[in-house]
Design goal:
By secondary structure, the chain is of the alpha/beta class. 45% of the residues lie in helices and 12% in strands. The longest helix is centred in the N-terminal third of the chain and has 19 residues, at 32-50. It binds S-adenosyl-L-homocysteine. Residues 72-73, 110, 112-113, 141-143, 163-164, 166, 205, 234, 236-237, 239, 276, 311-312 line the site of S-adenosyl-L-homocysteine.
Length: 349
Amino acid sequence: MKNYLIELIEKLFKYHSLELNEYEFLIENRNHEATKLLKKYANDLKREFYGNKIFIRGLIEFSNFCKNDCLYCGLRKSNLNCERYRLNKNEILKCADEGYKLGFRTFVLQSGEDNYFTDEILCEIVSALKLNYSDCAVTLSIGERSFKSYKILREAGADRYLLRHETADKNHYEKLHPVEMSFNNRLECLRNLRKLNYQVGCGFMVGSPFQSNKNLAQDLKFIEEFKPEMCGIGPFIPHKDTPFKNFMAGTVELTCYLLSIIRIIHPKILLPATTALGTVDPVGREKGILSGANVVMPNLSPVNVRKKYELYDNKICTGDESAQCIKCLSGRMQNIGHEIITDRGDFKN
Ligand code: SAH
């Protein structure tokens, strides 16, 4: 059985693909040796395409209003303890301005699903960003919208879109979301984004409630087949004001194991070491990078709102200025032999 595990890893490295039950086996039976080998292959591939370079994305959390009620998320509409805020266009541009000076060439606009931000308002913001910073990429992470809306935003200049699929299993999806939300619509949104020629990011939480190893295998198969340009994975972390408050957080160990596998499935994928990973372990992001990740997404949001964008408990970096954040991260990356660079960091085929 031990040899079979290693055989599977060799097969994955050779074909960048496994059967669903093989992915499941790889997760179920993981051990020290398998982890080490996956990590080695992941790092070899990362080095081949990206060297020791790490891309940075400036995250601007511009609204925490949300019409959805995802059971895991601190921004869910039923959370009355969440103090809501919105940034206006000028405030967003100010974040970007600061970010640009610090070397950011990608801005990620993230929010809850906030109806206040109509296509018109969002287009104005996206166009202004693209006009002021023509050498920068704009990424949106604002949830499920219509094809028409995605199209208008794309035409306004948005380059990329992050929409985690959250889980590739319909049954599991329905345990994480209220009945009003639909697994099929989430996937339809991802397909629409793809049609519109966005660079697309999907992703999921590791260790979310009710998640089985089979579900994780389904996530890997989905990623293999959908071929996203980016993939955000991080541990689930309970939030005290959600129905999932008493569930355990996901582990760094499993998250890193999966990061290595995803790097091997799609050697050129843009793979962030997420803030959630840094939250469950003080050196979680470093561990993520050393497992195959090549992107970090420091916060550019104004310090006075950072604590309010609370997806989960104890989120890190909520008290730092943007300049401190990037300094800290640069040092951390250097300590592990990596280097943050000033670059749009597009997916290259
Ligand atoms: N509203 C946008 C952005 C969501 S926040 C959207 O729907 O895409 C970005 C991601 O944070 C989510 O996709 C989810 O995977 C993650 N997240 C939310 N709550 C979390 C929690 N409790 N622990 C870890 N990650 C969480």
